Amino acid sequence: MPVSEFTKEDFDIIARDFADLKEAAMKRCADQKELDVVQKAFDFANEAHKGVRRRSGEPYILHPIAVAKIVVSNIGLGYKSIAAALLHDVVEDTEYTVEDISNLFGEKIASLVDGLTKIKTVLDNEDKAEKKSLQAENFKRILLTLNDDVRVVLIKLADRLHNCRTIEFMPEYKRDKILSETMFIFIPLAHRLGLYEVKSEMEDIWLRYKEPEAFNEITEKINRNISDKEKEIDEFIQPIDEALRKAGFDFEIKKRVKTPYSIWHKIVTKGITFEQIYDLYAVRIIFNPGQGCTKDTERDQCYHVFSIITGIYKYKSDRIRDWVKHPKNNGYEALHCTLMSHSGIWIEVQIRTQRMNDIAEKGIAAHWAYKKDGFVSENESEMDKWISKVKEIIVNPDVNALELLDIIHNDLTTSDIFVFTPKGEQKSIQKGATALDFAYMIHTEIGNKAIAAKVNMKLVPLSYVLKSGDQVEIITAENEKPKRAWLQFLATRKAKNIVIDYFKGERQESIRVGKTMLEEQLASLGYKLTDKIIAKLLESYEIFEGDRDELFFRIGAGILKISNLDQMLKKDDDKQGGRWSFPWFKSKDKKDSKYVINDKSDASHKYVIASCCNPIPGDSVVGFLASDGTITVHKKSCSTANSIAAKHGDRIVQTQWEQDADQSFLVRLSLKGYDRIGIINEISRYISLVMNVNMRRMYLNTEDEVFDGYIDLYVHDKDDLEKLIRRLSRIEGIQSVVRTDL
Fold this sequence. Notes:
Layout lengths: L7 H19 L5 H17 L13 H14 L3 H9 L2 H4 L4 H8 L1 H14 L13 H11 L5 H16 L6 H21 L3 H15 L1 H35 L4 E7 L2 H11 L10 E7 L7 H15 L4 E2 L5 E2 L12 E6 L5 E8 H9 L1 H9 L7 H15 L6 H13 L2 E5 L5 E5 L4 H8 L1 H5 L1 E6 L2 E3 L11 E5 L16 H12 L2 H18 L6 H10 L7 H9 L8 H8 L8 E2 L14 E2 L8 E3 L11 E5 L5 E5 L3 H9 L4 E2 L2 E2 L7 E10 L4 H12 L4 E9 L2 E10 L2 H12 L4 E7 L2
Parallel strand pairs: 2-6, 14-16
Antiparallel strand pairs: 1-2, 3-5, 4-5, 5-6, 7-8, 9-10, 9-11, 12-14, 13-18, 15-16, 15-17, 19-21, 19-22, 20-21
Helix pairs in contact: 1-2, 1-3, 2-4, 3-4, 3-9, 4-7, 6-7, 7-8, 7-9, 8-18, 9-10, 9-11, 10-11, 10-18, 10-26, 11-12, 11-13, 12-13, 15-16, 19-21, 22-24
């Protein structure tokens, strides 16, 4: 970080930003004494970072001030956390120690600063050459702080948000690494802790840099729609406002538009267009139920508000979300419904009490505040359970940092469903869990001795995937014991670990079985078990230690499934020359050398187009260098790419497309529309004859005069694809044409 003399303008900016922070802090500080601690922390940090500038050129102290502002305004923490945020880089970047902080600010603030410092610093006594992933180790440190004080994680989230806000000043490779880490761990962590504002802002920043064209296009459409529909939304709100006032409610109504990221995510995952998103607008009704109200009182009043507004407008019955009766596992409570306005647009309405709104915006910090005030949420125990579960995982000596990262990511991104025991007791279990997962959740011995289950009084196998509302009874047999095959369908970490532990004593047998299974599967596909294939599988399954016995053990124990072995090997097989493998090399010697990827290095590499996201020229792409010199090219927004970059940022290679008019790429277009005589012939003729595009596969299904389906075809680049989409959209009867995953 450069050191230079500050100008008067620099000092003015510092004073202005701290004044803003101090104003926000006054609302959280109980008295002048607490505010004095914040002032003292600023004075100390300001002096420690004096003359130091960030990469952007601005005074470094503006970063801690900004982090502290997020801590108080977006997360709602108190004066100790504000002070810790102001001091969070002092120990790492200056000569001051944690002991100095403790002497000046007390043990608690010092421990918060210490936790934040440990997150950022790789331990000196660790041999970097032996580390599996420095990034994974750092994430492990972040989660380890949950053992000490959750506030460390919350301040770290604020730090990450501000780094995202200023990410334009980072070099591209570092930007990709930071944004991938953010999407893989920090965004799900913010969501799990109920920090919706923090989560949404990080998502939008991620989209702005990963898919800039999509971000700009969606933002423009949002702005255009708001100006067109603002009057209609105000007219929609007016009768609601009048009816609630008449009913005696103390309330406020806020307008909200979906974020660019949430719109983009819906477009990509649902295969729809911007115009087909009917819940683009939301209205939030926040009311004060009054002093001394109970949880039941709040719930009843939410339902009362619902009855009032649905007396004015028709509602969409399949879009009611009752998180008042069944709060989300991160504490979120609200009643959502989607209403049809008199002008013909769908508008989502969110009904919350002031307490529910505080928890929705401030997450876990608001939980603490209401607990202190004697209002304990029903769902607070769920938050406590989750933190306890994470603590249990991170102190397990058998879980390395990479495994921990995957476990936590999966846990953070998995939603829960509610099921019932035979006696009607409600249980929460992760979505996708099976009857056997439920058995292990109840008790280890019930799981070990399970032979079948009854779901809603009907006999089902243990592999039955549970649905919300199922009533589950487990049937056991005294002589039953765990089977390796169970690992093929178990979904929860707890159940898998119990079964894996059961077979750990038979490790050598599992290694032998796994090797035999792999050899037999390879033989059926026409391959032999060679060192090259093992190296490829070790990398594909992210067993980077190069431990072939571990690979065989995981296959033999049922931890790894090898049913997709054919696809995995073909994808990277030099001899295949298939649609995914492109042996283009950058050549300095041959001027006529054709290549479409340039990795900005002096080396010659083989490039593989990732089959998970199928990038084409024009897409924002990033490459990952494998041990054999191959670079796999992904779309920057690809979830697999985010996972790899979050764990192995050192493998990132900046890539860019070069011109190659002879090369075509396979893409899929999904179509929906009204059926009419000859429309399919018109579509295929237009693609083949007018656009001169080669089709590989076409599937269109017609039912009740409506058709939908997809076309797989080859294009040269993104411009060609967008031109094709525009022209197909003009064909009479076609309602939507969108690019989707193959």
